[in-house]
Amino acid sequence: MKKSEGVKKVRKKTRNSIKAKGLTIAILVSFTFSVVVFPCECATSMWSQTYGGTASESVEVFVQTSDGGYALAGYTNSFGAGSYDYWLVKTDADGNMQWNRTYGGSNNDWAFSVVQTSDGGYAMEGVTTSFGAGGRDGWLVKTDAAGNMQWNKTIGGTDNDFLYSLVTTNDGGYAVGGHTYSFGAGAEDYWLVKTDADGNVQWNQTYGGTGTDFNYRLIHTADGGYAMAGYTNSFGAGGRDCWLVKTDALGNMQWNQTYGGTGDDYGSRVLQTADGGYAMIGYTGSFGAGGQDFYLVKTDADGNMEWNMTYGGTGNEQGEMVIQTIDGGYAIAGNTNSFGAGGQDFYVVKTDEYGVIPEGLTVGVMLLLSTAAATVGIRILRKRPKWKRR
Question: What is the pTM assigned to this prediction?
């Protein structure tokens, strides 16, 4: 083969390789631009549904069920036996109601938590004034897969007792969390109750001081214990402070930590993070832009604060829910009086793994980036290598 022919083949192969790379870049730029700026209509279907009657309903919690649908729990005074009753609504994957059931007596009964059980049924926890030992009591209701009540149990003493959170336990029973006036060291204490599979109380523990200690949320931790979030004015820096309590599997306190300043600070929800620590969302009157602001606290596995962030405007913001997202960041939700259409609006914030809200890429910025990347691709297509000549 002549030397000139070999050089020509090398040049041709190189040009083809460069063209392929340039086309790949152009295709990737086009695809990225179309996905980020102009999302395709083939994405997951969207829908909205309403449920209720002529009076008032409130949905407090919902879970996705094993068949891909949803179970929503709360309370209603459009249906049922009394003023407000537990209300359980089951839908299909598109939100179409399949059935609904009410549970309660002649007075007020409010459901605040629901889980799907291993037998396909449901367990709900809340507060009743229709039944129990006196005042307000916790009320645990178990149903079959069609929502028919199988059993119910009241939990409480002669004073007012509130149970808001419900988790299933490894032995088939339940752990419920809230706060109690009937038991404990002070006016109101954190309260953790463990039951068997039939709702019979096996043990209960209280946590608190001489002041008011109010537990909003209970979770099951990876080591088999429990973590509870709420607020305390028995301990802390002043006023009310966020209070995180960690126990072992029998409810014995392992540690507790307070977070806050000289104002009032409240913890609403807690989750265990991928690194074994905890993230707690609530709202603060000690820090932030004004009024009350979302307050996100990240701790290590022993509850020691690693960082905290506030979000909001000059009005009042209340953080109510937090989840850790697949990218390691956090999505927090609650209510705002600073932003939105007016009055109080729902408010959702997405952060990175340190609680920081990254500066978003606007459509204009995406256009500039796409143009620059496309220009690079075109230049690669046009570029010709400089060959050395002997």
Answer: 0.79
Answer with the residue of higher pLDDT: 50 or 235.
Answer: 235
User: What is the C-alpha to C-alpha distance for residues 341 and 338, in angstroms, rounded to an integer?
Assistant: 10
Q: Are 79 and 87 in contact (CB under 8 A)?
A: yes
C-alpha span between 248 and 47 (Å, rounded): 42
Tell me the helices (H) and strands (E) count for the chain, helix number first: 2, 23
Instruction: With CA atoms as reference, report the closest residue to 75 among 48, 104, 54.
Output: 104
Question: pLDDT at position 8, please?
Answer: 54
The DSSP H or E segment spanning 139 is strand 137-143
Q: Residue 35: is its pLDDT beyond 60?
A: no
Query: Which class for 12: exposed (0-12), middle (13-18), buried (19 or more C-beta within 10 A)?
Result: exposed
Interior CA angle at 265 toward 260 and 271, to 5°?
Answer: 85
d(C-alpha 284, C-alpha 311), whole Å = 10
In the chain, domain spans: 3-39+364-382, 60-361
Mean pLDDT of the chain: 85
Backbone angles phi, psi at 181, to 5 degrees: -100, -15
Q: Which CATH architecture has domain 60-361?
A: 7 Propeller (2.130)
By C-alpha distance, which of 179, 204, 174 is closest to 190? 179
Q: Which helix or strand (DSSP H or E) is residue 333 part of?
A: strand 330-336
**C-alpha closest to that of 235 among 263, 267, 272, 210:** 210
Which alpha helices (DSSP H) does the chain contain, by range? Answer: 3-36, 363-382
Strand partners for 165: 177
Phi, psi torsion values for 44, nearest 5 degrees: -55, 135
